[in-house]
Amino acid sequence: MKDTEKSKEELIAEITSLRMENSRLNKKISGLPPMGNQAFKKKILIVDDNEDARKSVVAMVKIFGYTTIEADSPHRAIELFTDQKVSIDLILSDIVMPNGGGLAMVNKIRKLNPDIKVIFMSGYYEYTTGRNERLLTDIQTLQKSKIDISFEIVLKLFKKHVADSQVLLAEKKVGEFQAILMEIIRQLGKSGNKLDDQGNILKSYSKKLSQPTSIEDVSTIAQEIVSGTKSVVTSSQKLKKQMDASVSEISTLKEELKGIKQTARTDMLTGLLNRRGFDQAIYEAQQYSIAEDKAFSIILTDIDHFKKVNDTHGHLMRDNVLKMLSRLLNEHIKGKDIAARFGGEEFIIILPETPLKGAFILAEQIRKNLRSMKWIAKNSGKFIGTITVSLGVAQYKPEETVKSLIQRADNALYFAKRNGRNKTVTELDIAAA
Q1: Class of 275-432 per CATH?
Q2: Which of 27, 182, 343, 365 is 20 to 30 A off residue 126, Cα-Cα?
Q3: First to last CA, the chain
């Protein structure tokens, strides 16, 4: 037997050791409370119209041993609360969804259950991708403490690291709106009382004038009327200035809220719509297509050998490639067209009022323009090669789901990948193959 080979007894011992270690790791990671623990019986409702995102959140919650209920739409979530047989302790919900989204859904649910706890999510993937170092640190600390993960601890983790900061900021702005409106009401009431007083005084002057008076009395009353009128004008001008200031504040808040909404829908690296923004945009494109009976298509784009670019030239070059492709996509779209970052190195373009043939022509223009670019590393000045993309194109079919449309584009994309890359493939090309 060679020195590098292990005996049967050694292999058995090693396998036994690995099994024991695996058992310890599972217990450490899961942090599941005992079966008798009341927290284990808590039920969490996960609401997200994006199935992949919803399943991902469900998987994380189940790690802590809690029961989950899923709803793929705000409407379904409301239905669950009208069912008296279902007991729900917490809602974890996306915000941007069809039919009014998460905020409108919660308003309706709280009419049925005013005390329900709700957390809006936008950053769960920060945990799974390791980008949120504070969340990772907190979870590692909990694991080291070897204590049961209670329902309250889970709530604290979600509120601290997953709750949507944009929503918290929006709530702050709503409070500022309310403060401005209360000030307007106060000023109107204050000015209204003054105007009522001045009106009563002027009425008394009118009554005096209706009585027999001397020229001197008429002159005196006239002077008092002029003085009273000036007071009314001064009060009105002051009110106008106060109203102008309030209107200016409201306009500023409206712009801030507009910025908050846009930020929540935007990919910070590329400036394109993020997945949340895309979900809303393609829903609107679908509804427009149905209402107007007009075709629309999508182009799904993936950078070829992108991992090699990242491994060879580093994160800075990777980010530059993503930003350059995003700029190229924006330069090629027009009108109602929308480009979004679909995830990682994948991008997607929504083309309202565009049939498959038109979408294919645009996809080819993008592919050829990117292929012709010369990529040079800034730090070394060396030519790093050609960057190419593969593209899949599909056209929306009446009454199909958005998920089905994206799947057909994805099939076309990976057909291009399997057949040499740097290609544009449509759903018709697959059917003819």
Answers
A1: alpha beta
A2: 27
A3: 54
Other C-beta atoms lying within 10 Å of the C-beta of residue 231: 14
Per-domain boundaries in the chain: 31-163, 168-264, 275-432
Which member of 284, 331, 345, 346 is catalytic?
345
Q: Is 183 a catalytic residue?
A: no
Rounded to the nearest 5°, which phi and psi values hold at 241? -65, -40
Residue 364: pLDDT over 80:
yes
Structure-block tokens of residue 55: 């399943």
Residue 374 gets which letter from DSSP?
A: P
Contacts of 372 (CB under 8 A, 6+ apart): none
**In contact, 281 and 348? CB cutoff 8 Å:** no
d(CA 403, CA 98): 14
Give the rounded distance of the alpha carbon of 416 from its chain centre.
Answer: 31
Q: How many CB atoms lie within 10 A of CB 37?
A: 15
- List Cα–Cα distances, 360 to 60, 299, 365, 367, 428, in angstroms: 39, 8, 9, 10, 11
- Level-2 CATH architecture, domain 31-163: 3-Layer(aba) Sandwich (3.40)
Summarised one tens digit per residue, pLDDT across range 94-143 is 766 666 677 778 888 888 888 888 877 654 444 444 445 666 677 777 77
Name the H helices within 265-347. Answer: 275-292, 306-332
Dist. CA 7–CA 316, nearest whole Å = 49
- pTM, 2 dp: 0.49
- Residue 43's Cβ-side half-sphere holds a number of Cα atoms within 13 Å equal to 10
In which residue are the tokens 């090629």 written? 332
